[in-house]
Amino acid sequence: MENEQTTLSRKERRKTRTPEEKQKRKRKRRIIWFSIIGALIIFRLILPYIVLNYVNKKLANLEEYYGHVNDIDIHLYRGAYEIKDIRIVKKVNKGSKTDTIPFFKSPSIDLSIEWSSVFDGAIVGEIAVESPVINFVKERHTGEDVRADTADFAQLVDDLMPVTINRFDIHNGEIHYHDLEASPKLDVAMKNINVTATNLTNVTDSKELLPATLKATGEAYQGIFSLNMKFDGLANVPTFDMNTELKGLNLALLNDMLREYGNFDVKKGTFSLYGEFAAKEGKFGGYAKPFLKNLDVVQWNKQEGDVPQILWETVVGTTAEVVQNQRKEHLATKIPISGSFDNVNLNKWYAISYVLRNAFLKALRPSLDNSININKLQDSKNKTFLEKVFGGDPEKKEARKEKRAKRKSERKKK
Fold it and tell me: Does the global pTM surpass 0.90?
């Protein structure tokens, strides 16, 4: 009864309102609506500046790096924002914010809600990075630095994305290794890198042991790189199963690096590397299978003495271990890779790169002894593939290093 009386009284009041009162109420409603719309428009206009300030503050607080973003675009209709022209540089000296080569740069990073997962009942995010470039510079990015930086950047991504990331994409990326002390200066790169990682948080509620997937491809000096991996993105310790291939890398295009680190040239020849690895409960195992085809080594430094003799003596002396097909001019071997992570709570992405890096460096250690030092495995008992081919006498290698250093010193004096 009371509700009916209230409804009737309201209707009666509406009927008894004068035209002036009705007009006044309409104006109030319009003012309220226009105020709300105006506030939303103002908020939308200033939101990019708020986000830009927030992102740049986070980048400025990195311990070993300094970063800056030029612009932010907000896309409310799809729950996303885009970071434009990001640049992160290594602090060469404590407090310094200048470096000639940026550690990371990208014209666009898009962070958004992964709408396909909403239908699975989860609010998660996805990140798409366009044309990123990562530069590692010798003497500036050591193993301990990279391990710490990986954790810092993982925390940075968490800070920039308000929801858990379930998908990660990289389009047309590049990774460079620079040696600014080499003559000529070295810039070794892998380009056209594309990466897709999905179901990182197991949104699909898969019962598989390794529910997440990662696929990556790239190109390096006419060689084709690929990686396929299944892993558990929620595991507390690195848990994954992967296989990787690098096919047909043209060694002749890497002569500057081979001269600098191996003191030899290649007239022709291709290098391929195949590997399978798995990790669980803090341990990893697998193998790397390097493969040389049609190798033709030329222009040995005459001051090095009997290097060609070392070459042939080494090849002949290791026929039990090196599979050689004289008709096709192939050289191949299989290198077991195993070990354990120092820290079982190691960041999964660092752990994966750790295994790949050690596999590759074990295959090419003679020509990469002076490259980035990121916890390389030391195995003095087993010679690597190129040690078998090009000789692996530690004393002679050390003598050659001393000769090169002496010649460089003499050239600088001149």
Answer: no
